[in-house]
Design brief:
- The complex is a heterodimer of chains A (about 350) and B (about 450).
- Chain A is an alpha/beta fold.
- In chain A, helix 10 packs parallel to helix 11.
- The longest helix of chain A has 27 residues.
- The radius of gyration of chain A is 21 Å and the shape is elongated.
- Chain B has about 450 residues and is α/β, with parallel strands linked by helices.
- Chain B has 3 domains: about 80 residues, SRP54, nucleotide-binding domain (Four Helix Bundle (Hemerythrin (Met), subunit A), Up-down Bundle), CATH 1.20.120; about 200 residues, P-loop containing nucleotide triphosphate hydrolases (Rossmann fold, 3-Layer(aba) Sandwich); about 140 residues, Signal recognition particle, SRP54 subunit, M-domain (434 Repressor (Amino-terminal Domain)).
- In chain B, helix 1 packs antiparallel against helix 2 and helix 2 packs across helix 4.
- The longest helix of chain B has 23 residues.
- Classes of the chains: A alpha/beta (about 350), B alpha/beta (about 450).
- Chains A and B meet through helix 5, helix 9 and helix 12 of A and helix 2, helix 6 and helix 9 of B.
Chain lengths: ~350, ~450
């Protein structure tokens, strides 16, 4: 999945053994031809899911009851089952429109006798949701430019976890032997610069910053200049959290993007929107407005280690064709995973229960 | 996007004119629409189910008031029920008792605890209290610094917490300091945590046991989806919260989480955060939020938004200019920029209740942001003289302006025409002392018979 490993491998780097074992495994997944990759993926899904559920089980208290029971316990698809299905999808934040689309389609198929049993229904649902998630034409992995720094601009509403995500992404790149520079573009929130600096220390990446209250575009200008002069491989730009309805703040974001583009013509290569998994239907509005302002190229879904399913991304992918890059599953530096649609859909249908 | 709920309900009841009573049968379809609206607003699935059942019971058999259509009657019942559920009226903080009152702020990561702590401290200062800010988030990088900076900006003392201290110790020490220094209210800003993290939830319980807070405010993001119930329920179960602070309400989230949280915790929503500035904290208005959850437009928010953008001084100046007949192209440009500042035109129109119902709106020229941009470009390509006196703009000047602004002569003509039309309208307004309302209302006065003309 990690496309940027391609560049790493292309470069004469010998730090293969430095990477932790799970990253190597994923690098392999990204490398081979499509067919081969598919088969490896297929084998790995089970392992990946186990790892994810294990990670989540710790925090969820280990009470994961699979909704499979819903499908397994019944011999026929009856209206009650469809109602339960509607509840599962809605409570996962898939939204009324997407849910109705899926449930109505299921109902039609049942009346046309296309579905033999609940298992067949489940399979078709999973397939359709996965299709929504994969509807983007753009590649799911980050592809680094062949030359010059890879510039990532991170945007989102307040409190979704932009800075934490940046720390984790920086860690991933640093582990892969890349030289990473962080740019503290959040000059508004109190102590945001300090927060990024602490992350910089943790992952051993320098941080370009000015005082709180400075013009973010000016910080970004400095950062780009510094990165180009010292030939950094990756530049990650933090921006202040802003609600997508604030017109002047969205203008500020456009300006930051323009400044980056002026320093390096094809940059920023990635504009990543961070979405909190607890977000409801407002996520659509967020994706729309940020997309209008700066043309989002990728998503990261954070805080999936709670009980929220993050189903809003299904809705977002369905409507805007943006690929999901990563998911955040904890506060530790390594708690950022590549997004795997199959395992995500599987988790949508996993229900925790208190019994 | 879904249509406005009232529009949809009107559709449901179209064939129902003349029926005097809401029957079980005809209300079912209406409630289906209400259910959709609530789910779209992120009200929790189960909460919606209970709510709809309750409303149905209330509504069946009710006479439709003479002045209302059946759709309006349903909305009224639903709206009233929502307001009741959301808590009728605002409830103040309970800070009585001896010794310094303690407020504990709890919630998920990124819900806005620290910013809200700062805002609340400011509000308390205004009420004549002496608050003391206590950062107890030793986990997130620079969390303590964040509250310290806020405190310094507000000129409110902040407890010197250190990251290697235990949050319980911090809280205890802070109480001692407050007693000595005569601070009467402590605001303890705890670390954001997941409700499923038992260790961290236990830490909150320990803080609570150690300092016995008068208020435990659960801070929740207004954009939260279905999971709001799970989170609120767990926080309430472990800590027995005393109230809720709903943050980030200035966005366009419908805020259904408010209803979910209120329903499962039965604790009042005390405040809403409405901006990043430190005075952007308001008491909770159940009726406003109820309309918003139903997606029925929020005229108050619209007014507030307009007030936020429109510069009072500029508006006064403009009024003077209109009176003196000195409304220039420059002012015209100013107006356009103010409209643009309010946000996308669609968004503004969405806030006006019932606007989409007006069929004529569909035939109206769609407000196009690109067009506005063009108008701006055209005016900017005029010289100062041309902006003041549009009469001097000759054909050759028009050509120059078109070239300068990257538009066509037709575009330039259009701009000048809409400007002169605005001038004409203003003259009319000036002409009649009561004219303002009439002109704005769009109703033309009937022409008087010739003989009566002055």
């Amino acid at each position: 999945m990690l496309g940027w490993f391609k560049k790493k491998i292309a470069r004469p780097a010998s730090d293969e053994e430095v990477s932790p074992p799970d990253q190597q495994e994923e690098a392999v997944v990204g490398e081979p031809g499509p067919e081969e990759a598919k088969s490896i993926l297929h084998e790995d899904v089970g392992v990946l899911f186990k790892r994810l559920t294990k990670g989540l089980a710790k925090t969820r208290g280990g009470f994961i009851k699979r909704v499979d029971e819903l499908f397994l316990g019944k011999k026929v698809i009856d209206p009650e089952l469809l109602d339960d299905l509607e509840e599962i999808l809605i409570t996962a934040d898939l939204g009324v429109e997407t849910t109705m689309d899926l449930v109505d389609d299921a109902r039609d198929r049942v009346s046309r006798n296309e579905l033999a049993d609940p298992q067949a229904l489940k399979a078709i649902l999973k397939e359709r949701i996965t299709d929504f998630l994969l509807s983007s034409d753009r590649p799911a992995e980050l592809v680094m430019p062949t030359e010059g720094p890879f510039v990532i601009m991170v945007v989102g509403v307040n409190g979704v976890g932009k800075t934490t995500t940046i720390g984790k992404i920086a860690h991933k790149f640093a582990n892969a032997g890349q030289r990473v520079l962080l740019v503290a573009g959040d000059t508004f929130r109190a102590a945001a610069v300090e927060q990024l600096k602490i992350w910089g220390e943790r992952v051993n990446a320098p941080v370009i910053a000015q005082a709180t209250g400075a013009d973010p575009s000016s910080v970004v200008f400095d950062g780009m200049e510094y990165a180009l002069k010292r030939r950094y491989d990756v530049v990650i730009i933090d921006t202040a959290g802003r609600l997508h309805t604030k017109v002047n703040l969205m203008e500020e974001l456009k300006k930051i993007k323009r400044v980056i583009g002026k320093k390096l013509s094809d940059a920023p290569h990635e504009i990543m929107l961070v979405i909190d998994a607890t977000t409801g239907q407002n996520g659509i509005s967020q994706a729309r407005e940020f997309g209008k302002a700066v043309d989002i190229t990728g998503l990261t879904l954070t805080k999936l280690d709670g009980t929220a399913k993050g189903g809003i991304v299904v809705n977002i992918c369905r409507e805007f064709d943006i690929p999901i890059r990563f998911i955040g599953v904890g506060e530790q530096v390594e708690d950022l995973r590549d997004f795997e649609p199959e395992e995500f859909v599987e988790a949508l249908f996993a229900e925790e229960s208190d019994s | 996007m879904f249509d406005n709920l009232s529009d949809r309900l009107n559709k449901v009841f179209r064939d129902l004119r003349g029926h005097g009573k809401l029957s079980e049968k005809n209300i079912q379809d209406a409630l289906k629409e209400v259910r959709m609206a609530l789910l779209e607003a992120d009200v929790n699935f189960k909460v919606v189910k209970d709510f709809i059942a309750a409303v149905q019971e209330k509504a069946v058999g009710r006479e439709v008031a003479v002045s209302l259509s059946p759709g309006q009657q349903v909305i009224k019942i639903v709206h009233d029920e929502l307001v009741k559920l959301l808590g009728g009226q605002a409830e103040p903080l309970e800070l009585g008792g001896k010794g310094p009152a303690i407020i504990m702020m709890v919630g998920l990561q990124g819900s806005g605890k620290t910013t809200s702590s700062g805002k609340l401290a400011k509000l308390l200062t205004k009420q004549g209290r002496r608050p003391y800010l206590v950062p107890a988030d030793v986990y997130r990088p620079a969390a303590i610094e964040q509250l310290t900076v806020l405190g310094n900006n507000l000129d409110i003392p902040v407890h010197p917490s250190k990251v290697d201290q235990d949050p319980v110790t911090i809280a205890k020490n802070a109480v001692l300091v407050a007693e000595k220094s005569n601070y009467d209210t402590l605001l303890i800003d705890t670390a954001g945590r997941l409700h499923v993290d038992e260790n961290l939830m236990a830490e909150l319980q320990n803080i609570k046991a150690a300092v016995k807070p008068a208020e435990i405010l659960f801070v929740a993001d207004a954009m939260t989806g279905q999971d709001a119930v799970t989170v609120a329920e767990k926080f309430n179960e472990d800590l027995d919260i005393t109230g809720v602070l709903l943050s980030k309400m200035e966005g366009d989230a419908r805020g259904g989480a408010a209803l979910s949280i209120k329903k499962v915790t039965r604790r009042p929503i005390k405040f809403v955060g409405v901006g990043e500035e430190l005075d952007a904290l308001e008491v909770f208005h159940p009726d406003r939020v109820a309309s918003r959850i139903l997606g029925m437009g929020d005229i108050l928010s619209l007014i507030e938004k307009a007030e936020e953008v429109v510069d009072k001084k500029k508006a006064d100046k403009l009024a003077k200019k209109i009176r003196k007949d000195a409304f220039t192209m420059e002012d015209f440009l100013d107006q356009i920029q103010q409209i643009k500042k309010m946000g996308s035109l669609e968004q503004i129109m969405g806030m006006i209740p019932g606007l989409n119902r007006m069929k004529q709106m569909q035939n109206m020229p769609k407000p196009d942001e690109k067009e506005l941009g063009k108008v701006e470009a055209v005016i900017r390509s005029m010289t100062a003289d041309e902006r003041r006196k549009h009469q001097i703009i000759t054909a050759s000047r028009r050509q120059r302006i078109a070239r300068g602004s990257g538009t066509s002569v037709q575009d330039v003509n259009k701009v000048i025409k809409s400007y002169t039309e605005m001038l004409k309208m203003m003259k009319k307004m000036k002409g009649k002392s009561t004219g303002m309302g009439k002109v704005m209302g769009g109703k033309k006065r009937r022409k008087r018979p010739k003989g009566l003309m002055r």
